UniProtKB/TrEMBL annotation:
Gene3D superfamilies: Aldolase class I. It comes from Radiobacillus deserti. It is an enzyme of class 5 (isomerase). InterPro entries: Aldolase_TIM, PRAI_dom, RibuloseP-bd_barrel, TrpF_fam. Pfam families: PRAI. It catalyses: N-(5-phospho-beta-D-ribosyl)anthranilate = 1-(2-carboxyphenylamino)-1-deoxy-D-ribulose 5-phosphate. The keyword Protein biosynthesis does not apply. Keywords: Amino-acid biosynthesis, Aromatic amino acid biosynthesis, Isomerase, Tryptophan biosynthesis. Its EC number is 5.3.1.24. This is N-(5'-phosphoribosyl)anthranilate isomerase. CDD domains: PRAI. The gene is trpF.
Length: 203
């Protein structure tokens, strides 16, 4: 089970993510309380081992800006959380994780039109796209066997419910931000507990 810890803002928090055994680390470049600059992200990225994949999160950003930040920071993936179209995605030269807000079953009909590495199923947006700490009805994501190995799950996950979510959806990976925070900051103990719980399903 792949695990992505998103919304990393400091080198210290990034080191905790690496030590936890997570697979992806996420930097937010869109409006969010977790937003950082490309310079901050590059400093963090330069401190990471090559074993962890670096992901940049964007919302309706100019493709040239996305490309420039990806190049500067050395991103392995670009995660798109806005209203980006399939043709927009084709302009990005980095593997894409496209996020979809799941209100109903019909939200899943458009997945295959997108050229991307992973489809991230997330709960409907609050103030910001993603990172709201709310789950969606996981049963809606059943029947996506033809996309096996490409579905990632986000939205309201934490150490206590991640196994149930994995059993219900059978994703290749899970993505968390607020669920491993205490008072708005990444909590090393919560990160460790979440990664352990998510990866237990592999045993």
């Amino acid at each position: 089970m792949k695990v992505k810890i998103c919304g990393i803002k400091t080198v210290e928090a990034a080191q905790h993510v690496v030590m936890s055994g997570a697979d992806f680390i996420g930097f937010v470049f869109a409006d969010s309380k977790r937003k950082i600059t490309k310079e901050q992200a590059k400093e963090i990225a330069d401190s990471l081992p090559s074993t962890i994949r670096k992901v940049g999160v964007f919302v309706n950003e100019d493709p040239e800006v996305v490309q420039e930040i990806a190049s500067t920071v050395g991103l392995d993936y670009v995660q798109l959380h806005g209203d980006e179209t399939p043709s927009y995605c084709e302009q990005i030269k980095v593997p894409i994780i496209k996020a979809f807000q799941v209100h109903s079953k019909k939200d899943l009909n458009k997945l295959e039109r997108y050229p991307c590495a992973y489809y991230l199923l997330d709960s409907p947006a609050g103030k910001y796209r993603g990172g709201n700490g709310e789950t969606f009805d996981w049963s809606l994501a059943k029947g996506l066997d033809h996309l096996k190995g490409k579905i990632m799950l986000a939205g309201g996950l934490h150490a206590e419910n991640v196994q149930e979510a994995i059993t219900e959806v059978s994703p290749v990976g899970v993505d968390i931000s607020s669920g491993v925070e205490t008072d708005g900051e990444k909590d090393p103990e919560k990160i460790n507990r979440f990664v352990r719980a998510a990866k237990q399903t592999e045993r």
